[in-house]
């Protein structure tokens, strides 16, 4: 009995470790008579440290009977696109200077995951978002990259940056505590 309960609890815990994402849509790719079809799923989420930036991901999801019993392993194919979603992008430069995992999802029962790592380029005032998958033993070289720049949108005006005293303005970005560039 314990041999069944422990794996079931582990699977339930992994499934409950969700992200703060919004399901945007899906496209069916392979029909299965039993269980869900194979598909591409699309989700969106806001960067937790960078106000005014959202990312959209698409990834392959296996269906069929294996998905029904949570034994499927999804393909490593995934894509990310990040965009400015507000008039002004706001962030604390010290909080974003180190790479950070901003998204993670399980792609198999316990051995494979997909994640998005955010990198910050202080010289160019830009963010790069990298999605890739890994396994306990070996990952995949398949990856996708998206970048958002402070200078990619309209320049922030005085009304949009109210309360920005003591902050640096770069294009569309209002930045707390700038990191010295080399």
From TrEMBL:
This is Protein CreA. Transmembrane segments: none annotated. It comes from Neisseria sicca ATCC 29256. GO terms for cellular component: cytosol.
């Amino acid at each position: 009995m314990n041999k069944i309960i422990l794996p079931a609890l582990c699977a339930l815990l992994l499934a409950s470790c969700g992200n703060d994402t919004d399901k945007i849509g899906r496209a069916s790719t392979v029909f299965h008579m039993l269980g869900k079809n194979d598909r591409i799923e699309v989700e969106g989420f806001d960067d937790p440290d960078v106000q005014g930036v959202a990312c959209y991901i698409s990834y392959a999801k296996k269906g069929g009977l294996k998905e029904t019993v949570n034994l499927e392993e999804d393909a490593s194919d995934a894509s990310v696109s990040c965009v400015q979603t507000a008039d002004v992008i706001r962030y604390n430069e010290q909080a974003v200077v180190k790479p950070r995992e901003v998204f993670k999802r399980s792609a198999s029962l316990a051995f494979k995951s997909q994640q998005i790592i955010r990198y910050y380029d202080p010289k160019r005032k830009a963010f790069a978002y990298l999605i890739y998958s890994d396994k306990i033993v070996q990952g995949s070289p398949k990856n996708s990259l998206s970048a958002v720049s402070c200078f990619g949108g309209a320049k922030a005006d005085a009304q949009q940056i109210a309360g920005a005293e003591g902050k640096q303005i770069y294009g569309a970005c209002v930045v707390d505590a700038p990191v010295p560039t080399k």
